[in-house]
Amino acid sequence: MRWISTFILSAFLCPAEISASSPERLQENGSQHATTTSVAEITPSKNIISSDTTKILAESIENIQIETPRKMNIVEQVINYFDKANKPKAHKRFDFTIVGGPSYNASTSFQLAVMGAALYHSRMDSITPVSNASLFVQGSLTGFYRVGLSGDHYGPEDKYRMRYCADFAHIPLKFWGIGYETESQNSNETKYTELRSALWCDFQWRLADNLYFGPSVNFHYAKATKVTRPELWNGQDLRIFDYGLGLGFIFSFDTRDVSTNASSGINLNIKQYFYPGFLKNRYAFSSTEFTFGIYRQLWKSGVVAAQLHTMATYGNTPWSMLPTVDASKGIRGYFEGRYRDKNEADVVIELRQHIWKRFGAVAWGGVGSVFRHFSDVRLNTLLPSYGIGIRWEFKKKVNVRVDYGFGKRSSSISLGLYETF
Fold first, then answer.
1. Among 9, 46, 218, 375, which lies 20 to 30 A Cα-Cα from 123?
2. So what CATH class is 74-417?
3. pTM above 0.70?
């Protein structure tokens, strides 16, 4: 290596070659002395590098150590992983990230949850919205487990949309009966375990700007086990099995800037389902669901969101498919599925405020009600909801949310991905 270093130094520093003869020898030869002297005079003396200097510099090059990046430990790798999770990745068509940890729910107590979120492009252009998908796996020592997949897929140039959800769960729950009068009595509380499978899918074509319409299908299975007070089910079967042939349609008008965490626009949805007896449904009924949401940016870091939601059912609606006050996810603070009846309505307004870096907070207030007939709604049957929550931007425009809600003589903590509406 030393001779290579010397060669490199000689090439770059260009030491002057005066002559192969010594000065004394040149003085003995006059003609040569004159010629050599003229060369020496036009060659700067500062370019003359001694062999000792060349040797020192060559050794210095050999001693130079090129530092390689230090390998990160596991903690640093995790921090780096989540630090980059919300960074836009324009070069990636499919971007998937997972997060996990402990959580708490009033019905399932402490649990472990793993959630994954994916953002992807069906076409890399400025017209097609970014599609999203989420996966969640939850479990606890109480016997609770849940696996689900949901998402919004946008076709090229947003010419069609597909929304879907698959939810499989084994949940220790409580039941208070059917109808507000029965459900409001704490003495009616009874425990049971619900085995649930639910799948639905909407497919919509764009009819005009922001206007969509298309078919929808729903499959539902529910089974109540470990029941101690079956009379609270009003004589209905504890095992409900609809063959996945609940058919219907959906109409929507959507001007939101982004579906996962909107800051502007409106979202109107009307969904109609039919569960006729000739499709082997033991309980024949139909349902109509209406949702209207509006989003406005109050200031640079603050957004107000409001939602009106109602669901009505007609016919012989089974207990597992009755509308519940928390079905829209806007009403929080109640035990899952406690209040259910033939019809439900709720309205919620929420302030969403960015706090610092990837953290934000929300505060909301709202009210809901369940009823057999609209004329049954009274001031004392209204179910208030209010609370606060923390948001952390897991991915771009995808939040992990933790909400602490308060209701009528109750409270609950909920964890999830995306905003509630």
1. 218
2. mainly beta
3. yes
